[in-house]
Amino acid sequence: MTHRCGHLYCKADENYKHYALHRILDLNDSMPPLPTGERYIGEYHIYSCPGCAAQLQVDLYSPSLGGDPVLWDTRIA
Length: 77
Ligand SMILES: [Zn+2]
Description:
This protein is about 5% helix and about 25% strand. With about 80 residues, the chain is mainly beta. The chain has a three-stranded antiparallel sheet with strand order 1-2-3. The structure holds zinc ion. The site of zinc ion has 7 residues, from loops.
């Protein structure tokens, strides 16, 4: 996969997110408080190009629900 700036991430059968800049933002630090007073269980995973810093993708992930936090957008079989 190649970005418009020419940065080469990885082979087509790999997840480019493992090669991108990755920032995690807890929803409790970025959203208004819930009316119930409960805490958010999610976090934003923000991926950017290491070549030009363009934002590529934002995923919402909840650690308490489990699974792989690095989601696949498209997987070539
Ligand atoms: Zn780029």
